[in-house]
Amino acid sequence: MAQKVETRLVDDLDGSEAVETVRFALEGRQYEIDLSEGNAARLREGLAAFVASARRAGGARGGRTAVPASTGAAVSSRKATDREHGAAVREWARANGFEVSSRGRISTEILTAYEQRS
Superkingdom, according to UniProt (predicted)? Predict the structure, then answer.
């Protein structure tokens, strides 16, 4: 007899279908939350200015992974996502008259302007 097991994620905020599990830490405590695409974006946008101004603490590099509702397998890493986001911010900043280096931390001023763009 064959069996098919399917895992479905439910957004922990609003009960809608979740598309990923977001892992994060605050004050030494680890958390994870299942979120829809929109709620995951809201979480990341809300923390973006704080993350941009923070310094990394010790320990292994890692972070969030997207977990598809049907498989539970990790499909994206924080490092790749951060790199793509940084490239997009730098491209936007240059196109809008900001001076931004090609490497290193992006200033809070530029990140704030990027997040508030219309």
Answer: Bacteria
pTM of the model: 0.47
Q: Which long-range contacts (CB under 8 A, 24 or more apart) does 34-38 make?
A: 34/9, 34/10, 35/11, 36/11
Question: What ranges do the domains of the chain cover?
Answer: 20-115
State pLDDT tens for residues 52-71.
888 887 655 555 444 444 44
**Cα–Cα distance, 19 to 39 (Å, whole number):** 10
Strand locations in the chain (E): 20-26, 29-35
Give CA–CA dist 57/61, Å, rounded: 9
CA distances from 59 to 42, 48, 56 (A): 26, 21, 9
Question: Using an 8 Å Cβ cutoff, are 15 and 34 in contact?
Answer: no
What torsion, rounded to 10 degrees, do the Cα atoms 29, 32, 37, 39 define?
-50
Angle, alpha carbons 45-116-108 (nearest 5°): 70
pLDDT tens-digit series, residues 1-24: 888 888 889 999 999 999 999 998
